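Summary for the funding panel

The consortium committed to producing paired sequence-structure records for every protein in the target list. Below we show the first two records in order, beginning with the earlier of the two.
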Amino acid sequence: MSGECQEPGPQGLQGGFPGSGGHSGALGSGQCPHPTTPVPWSLPRWRAYVAAGVLCYTNLLNYMNWFIIAGVLLDVQKFFHISDSSVGLLQTVFTVCLLLSAPVFGYLGDRHSRKATLSFGILLWSGAGLSSSFISPRYSWLFFLSRGVVGTGTASYSTIAPTILGDLFVRDQRTRVLAIFYIFIPVGSGLGYVLGSAVKALTGSWHWALRIMPCLEAVALVLLIALVPDPPRGAAEKHRQVAPGALRSSWWADVKYLWRNWSFVWSTLGVTAMAFVTGALGFWAPKFLFEARVVHGLQPPCFKEPCDSKDSLIFGALTVVTGIVGVVLGAEASRRYKKVHPRAEPLICASSLLAAAPCLYLALTLAPTTLLASYVFLALGELLLSCNWAVVADILLSVVVPRCRGTAEALQITVGHILGDAGSPYLIGLISSALRARYPDSYLQRFLSLQKSFLCCAFVIALGGGCFLLTALHLERDQAEAQQLGAGILDSEDVESQHLLPSTGASREDF
């Protein structure tokens, strides 16, 4: 064959994709549509890494927004006069709005400009966060609503950004870049606690933490517009990009395809268990540690704001350090182990979760006796949880065809949140309040009630490990199917592609 739609090589994205955006084609379309201007899409390697750096920075801010309120939780409770069960609902509102928005952004991300969608999301969450800092304590319901709008904005980023990285890098490069990208989940979460508590300590008001974030987000928006491309879907994996306006599968057809993909289904349930635990820990752990120190006589109780922010700083620093180490260890173990074992990724996820369960259990049960041991096991549990963030993203990208990865990310986020961290903070607070109502109110009883309500996390994370073991049973088959479906698009377009790039000299052997 004298010519063919050229694809990117391992050293960068250089190939015969018509245009820099557009829609993916339907499977088995049988055509390689003729674009208006047959200009190959290409991107130097350094530009891909710059784009990845911008996406990582924005991901940092994304997760800082998730947990900045948790860093000043006691002050928010005092300011708006809300109980444990009600303040747990604050995070639930955030995540419910996120999960309801994720399918919409997944649909848009698979069919329209991903760059424009991300820009809209950043504007939405930064504007809502800034406005929430000026809400009067008489209108607590409006503060809840603003957190929901922030969740809607962050849904765009969590859904779409990983798919752009998946179209810029492949194989080991993608594993490494995803590892760096997902490092910023625990780092951003930890810095959210740190920023909230540190700014409150400097200014005497927790409101200023919400006023500083939009400045950082404005920088991210400018960098996104200037430096991040919108590559053709499937570019890095040599899957053909169909011209804008071409017929493609419907959203419902994509959902049915994903529903039959057992690796995606079981890994999503495993991610749901992770989300349940990380959501509960992220929201309640600083208060749990604060009350543990009160019980041990190391800290006086807090009766009015501002409350001592030392526990938020400690937990934030712990989350940052264990997150960095855990993500790097998980990604590197996956990269090395999958060279000798094709099911390495889900097995690594399963083993880390099954090991995290007893660590979390010991961290909770030892807290009334010895704080040092509790901190050690909490750190180990967080480290083991963090090992999975980049690995589960790599699983999704390897078992799902590029044309519906945005939808896959959206569904995984939706299921993970609706069954995971959308309800876990509220559930923990509800159980804690119910247990406290059975006994006379005291700081010791508050602590013990929160401790008992936390114990369910250890059992949930063990169930997540079992889900990843089931993922391992289906992984190879689903990866092969995804490769065949992608190759099917390319094979069906070989003849027509000769007319696109007649001078490239590409042949079947080049691929």
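The next record, for a separate protein in the list, is shown here:
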Amino acid sequence: MPNTRPNTESKALAVNLDPRRYGSFAEIGAGQEVVRWFFRVGGAAGTIAKSMSAYDMSVSDAIYGHCDRYVCRRRMEDMLDHEHALNLERLRESRGDTTAFFSFADTVSARNFKGTNDCHGWMGIRFQAHPRDQDSQIIIHVRMLDTENALQQEALGIVGVNLLYGAFFLNHEPDQLIESLLDDLSTRRIEIDMIEFSGIAFRHVDNRVMSLRLVQLGLSNAAMFSANGEVLQPSETLYKKPILVERGSFRPLTHVNVDMLRAAQEKFQHEADVEADEVVTLAEITMRNLRANGDVDLRDFLQRVDVLAACGMTVMISDYFEYYRLAAYLSRYTKKKIAITMGAGSLCELFDEKYYTKLDGGILESFGRMFKNDLKLYIYPLLDRRTDTLTTVQNLEIAPEIRSLYQYLVDKGCIEQLDNHNPKHLSTFSREVLRQIEAGEPGWTEHVPEEVAEVIQQRGYFGYRRPVPAAKKPRRRVNVLPPLPSNNLVYPPTTNLPAN
């Protein structure tokens, strides 16, 4: 179907012509690119109470309070707090019955003169969906991909207009709102790697699903959220931190997954320049894994992340099937060590050349990209239950033509065997556990953490059905004779009667 949504100019005009909307714009870092659209299309006097740009740091601090970083979420939220409070204080009494107030804010680092900075920004809107309504809010983080400052400013202006229009006219359809954010743009110009909905208008929105939508629609290649469902922005969560990742399907999370991460973390924290309390651990699920059975099943997705949350894990959804692309993504945010832990079976697949036919340099180019930043692979052994033997780094079967490459990476320490694993978990295989859950077979709870078993049983996840209690045997009816009428006579016990 053709895209019937209005263009940027039409959206800005629709906002200006809506008599309910009135508020302020505060923009730092790339000029006033968003509000300019509303001035340009006409009718701005009915929409804009104030437009400002506190570009100087001292001036910005004087208005919004001190902040260590000026292009960050905290600064943007300080701007929203301040401007929205002023709107309500100054205008609520005079026009609050007919006006839905809003405040828009962004703080952006566009391309500098030398072209050496990270081009990104925070953008948000706090608004009333209806007059006198409670506040609602949308926050996004954008990365500008254009190579010219003027083009980045143009793209920011368009994204800002799309955000305002979506907040006002699409707040009841958050999926459509997300999809509309790149109207009149493309993913070659703007990446949106974080979105968070909050407030009364979005009380039924699950931000974990919204994070998935960003990746699913191609607005971002990865999204993150914490165990409590809080949306995380990768550049702030991973900034200058050592990172440890476990990739898996987590259908369900088993003792093997937990033990693999524990064993890898024990090794990783003893690496040079790695502080144990700084390590960020991620459970990563790829879009290819989520689409394994066709389209993404949101129910299945939420079941996976709920069992991960039960064990306190931070989740990353990514569109990086190739490990070298995942490594390149993570290295954007940190110069500290990055490690990935996987089973021996996954390591064998990693050395299968069929996955690298699209690269001019094939597997050599892939590994050159993956290991260039001192990446480390921690390998969990694989048990063959028929022969009771383990597949490890030392005896992994590798094609003869790339055996030398494999041995070079092992000798260099890029690939390391996890010899601190717990042997009792080696017989656990997630597919078998899933089959047991679906079939209602006993014993599967022994292969998953207690917290995971509890969530699955309480919520009926992964096809689990509560056991039907055994039918109770019917009680045998006993005929009870009615009591004899009392005649106030006392009979002696028959056992005391004298013998004849």
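Regarding this second record: The chain has two domains: 1-205, 222-467. The radius of gyration is 31 Å.
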